[in-house]
Specification:
- There is one protein chain.
- With about 325 residues, the chain is an all-alpha fold.
- It contains 13 helices and no strands.
């Protein structure tokens, strides 16, 4: 599939926004709006899955297997590092239980024994619980005729959100999966359907959408306004629409560094907090100062993610792709 570089650059920007968010938390700065990078990720995820499935039809089992190869190994490794660190006493505030570790590894929302909040062992893995729900529903939809898939998924996710509005849930599972944030996946798929049909906003409109989105994010950040997915979700949708308009009108070209950061965005997202924690502790010991600590935290968080992508994620993906190709050739030979 031809790379849509605008989406790649958005993935990079979303990952870096989350890095800035966590670095600011650790260094006494304010960049809460960086958490909205997750909303951009979710819209992009819906977009990518819909486009990929249209261009490369797969069975539900093949889809789940491909997604598991992409997501699971690196996440399990990062979780294992957290568990090992906790057992070694490096994370004194992290309380472990076998039930919580297993729930974390298998993407089941569960309350953390450390805080009582619905967090996995690796806190940023909470987003993967939503991703896995989306992947399972998406895989199930592949048995339906194409024209029924988007309405079926949209109806299911909308029903879950309505249920969360009219009923009170205490269980971690329903408390998680009735949040309005799941509608961001649906929005991404709807955008993708328009993209596949060549129906994107004209350049002037797309530029205006981007300006509105970035202006909205900036206003929230600068004024420290309260926000949730009901605000940042629509802003993320506008941003994706605007970038796709630029892409469709030939305004986006490949630039090596942001393209690399887009490729590495998943690893950056998973691993950045390890580096940020180390930098924050060292900076405290040597009295580095808040601005320099912030800079080093962002830089180290990004670099560790890129290194993890180069040394772990990309080799694992290549190995998985090689196995998939070999398996496909074997099946064709058997036929």
């Amino acid at each position: 599939m031809k790379t849509i570089y605008g989406i790649q650059y958005l993935r990079a920007a979303a990952a870096l926004a989350v890095v800035f968010f966590h670095a600011a938390e650790k260094t006494g700065h304010h960049f809460t709006i960086g958490a909205a990078g997750v909303d951009v990720f979710f819209v992009i995820s819906g977009f990518i899955m819909w486009v990929i499935s249209d261009r490369r039809p797969v069975t539900p089992l093949e889809f789940i297997r491909d997604r598991a190869r992409r997501i699971v190994p690196v996440y399990w490794l990062a979780t294992a590092v957290m568990v090992a660190g906790a057992l070694a006493g490096l994370f004194p505030n992290l309380v472990l239980s076998l039930e919580h570790v297993l729930a974390s590894l298998f993407f089941v929302p569960a309350r953390s024994p450390s805080s009582g909040e619905v967090w996995p062992v690796l806190v940023q893995g909470w987003t993967l619980n939503f991703e896995m729900l989306f992947y399972l529903v998406f895989a199930g939809s592949l048995v339906l005729p194409r024209n029924w898939r988007l309405p079926a998924m949209s109806g299911l996710f909308l029903a879950l959100v309505i249920a969360g509005r009219v009923a009170t849930f205490d269980g971690a599972l329903m408390l998680t999966y009735t949040r309005p944030i799941i509608l961001e996946f649906v929005a991404g798929m709807i955008i993708a359907e328009f993209w596949l049909k060549g129906r994107v906003p004209p350049l002037a409109v797309g530029s205006a959408l981007m300006a509105c989105s970035l202006g909205g994010f900036a206003l929230i950040g600068l004024l420290a306004l309260p926000f949730d997915e009901l605000i940042t979700g629509p802003l993320a949708v506008l941003l994706v629409l605007g970038v796709l308009s630029l892409e469709a009108n030939g305004c986006v070209r490949r630039v090596p560094l942001p393209a690399l950061l887009g490729d590495a965005s998943y690893s950056i997202y998973l691993w950045h907090t390890f580096a940020i924690s180390v930098v924050a502790k060292v900076a405290l010991e040597i009295d580095l100062g808040a601005p320099a600590t912030m800079f080093m935290a962002v830089l180290s968080g990004t670099l560790i993610g890129v290194a993890a992508y180069m040394m772990l994620e990309r080799p694992l993906m290549r190995r998985g792709n090689a196995r998939r190709v070999a398996g496909g050739l074997a099946r064709r030979a058997a036929e």
